[in-house]
Amino acid sequence: MKKKIIFAISVVPALGSLVVINRIEPYVLGMPFVLFWAILWVCLTSLFLIIANKLDPSTKEEEE
């Protein structure tokens, strides 16, 4: 159940909101807003995966 909720939370901002923000104006950092939004979510997804990897107990090395 938790996996479905996490998946839904990740899909809504990444894909669902593209319909709402699909505009050329305004420009952010010299890019159309929709391009900035897509690049932002690629970077945030990488950050979230790094955090999840650090918090996951199965990835910790066994201490001797």
Explain the overall architecture.
The protein contains three helices and two strands; from the N terminus they run H-H-E-E-H. It has 64 residues and is mostly helical. The chain has a two-stranded antiparallel sheet with strand order 1-2. A hairpin with a 2-residue loop joins strand 1 and strand 2. It starts with a helix and ends in a 9-residue tail after the last helix.
- Radius of gyration, rounded? 16 Å
Number of helices: 3
Structural class: mainly alpha
The profile of the biggest β sheet is:
2 strands, antiparallel
Quick overview of this protein structure:
The protein is mainly alpha-helical and 64 residues long.
How do the strands and helices of this protein lay out in sequence?
Blueprint: H1 2-16, H2 18-21, E1 27-28, E2 31-32, H3 33-55
Antiparallel strand pairs: 1-2
Comma- or semicolon-separated keywords:
64 residues, mainly alpha, two-stranded antiparallel sheet, 3 helices, 2 strands, 66% helix, elongated
